[in-house]
Amino acid sequence: MSSTANGKNGTWRNWGGNVSARPARQVTPASVDELAAAVRRAAEDGLKVKAVGTGHSFTSIAATDGVLIRPQLLTGIRGIDRDAMTVTVEAGTPLKRLNMALAREGLSLTNMGDIMEQTVSGATSTGTHGTGRDSASIAAQIRGLELVTADGSVLTCSEKENPEVFAAARIGLGALGIVTAITFAVEPVFLLTAREEPMPFDKVLADFEELWAENEHFEFYWFPHTGSTNTKRNNRSAGPEKPVPQLQGWFEDEFLSNGVFQVANWVGRAVPATIPAIAQISSKALSARSYTDIPYKVFTSPRRVRFVEMEYAVPRAAVADALRELKAMVDRSGLRVSFPVEVRTAPADDITLSTASGRDTAYIAVHMFQGTPYQRYFTAAERVFTAHEGRPHWGKVHTRDAEYFSRVYPRFGEFTALRDRLDPDRRFQNDYLRRVLGA
Fold first, then answer.
1. Most CB atoms closer than 10 Å: which of 130, 182, 221, 367?
2. d(Cα 224, Cα 367) in Å, to the nearest integer?
3. β-strand 25-27 against 228-237: which pairing, if any?
4. Whole-model pTM above 0.85?
5. Half-sphere CA count of 50, side-chain side, radius 13 A
6. How far is CA 132 from CA 67, 284, 356, 367, in A?
7. Per-residue pLDDT tens over the stretch 151-182
8. What helix, strand, coil percent values describe the chain, rounded to 5?
């Protein structure tokens, strides 16, 4: 049942390459019973337990020197309920497999993030989200959860069953138990028309509320060292389907957005002085385009260029100020930033530690090419975000701790009290959880 790690001498590494761990052992359970047994055995051996998905978090949220649970055998759809319009999936199912399987059944999630490599449990447990005026994160679409708790028992929760666990466990950070299955709300598959077009930075900020209000899904990318952005609006469409032609799609999404971008980042890493000039070219490389397709083909795109990321949620009303401050900081800092800044939104939700919990939210994400020093940029950006009571993404780089979170999350104490009840011995603790939730 145990498996080897994905690196030399049992070392596990995340996708971004900035986190590694050496667990005492790794387990790949083939059933919920096997997973529960692994948790009980870890307790007997006095070891901590963490489950890990595809390693797409940039924080050490899944790192452990105890037992690492790999979920790759806990995959697939358990059942579709067409009356309730829900689908129940095993926790290790990659979002890509879920999206493709749902599409074959004529169904879709309402909203999703911009990649689909992650497992459903990894994505939801860290609060993965896309952008939406009315539709929220992936976790907000959860209708039921099954998890193995610290004593090895299986607990199910929903709005009706164990509602206090449901309120917190949808974005549970791996602190309350190991999620084994998730029930999502789904709807009949629909078409989205995407409209991508360049727009000056100042205009996007001046018109932000309007752009947000007029579109179901609005987002934009600002290229540091330029006054340029690329905007994307996704809205439901009556059709017909008009996908991006294959050759054009390859050119824009693979060659420009992944291939050329990779080379540009290599050049920028080697000779940082070239970055502003490259940014000017990059910001103009992608021209306006429009296409209509099923949701996952519009919401998600491949991201092959590896990076490290920090993302903060700020109150939606503060987004223009925060971005102006970020731009001023980059302009005066002498920093050289080769990756665009991504801006998205989410409506307020009712999940205890959701970055959008109780407030309408805008997200600002800063990235640095893998292997480039990112601390100075991220530290300066974090200063801007925290001045606006920002809440960092649980799976992306940040330096905040429990003391800070108790100030920016009104229901923080509710989460930690539930954790005390479900995991009194801290079986699921690691260094990251100790920092963000307190000991």
1. 182
2. 11
3. unpaired
4. yes
5. 23
6. 37, 26, 12, 21
7. 999 999 999 999 999 999 999 999 999 999 99
8. 35, 25, 40
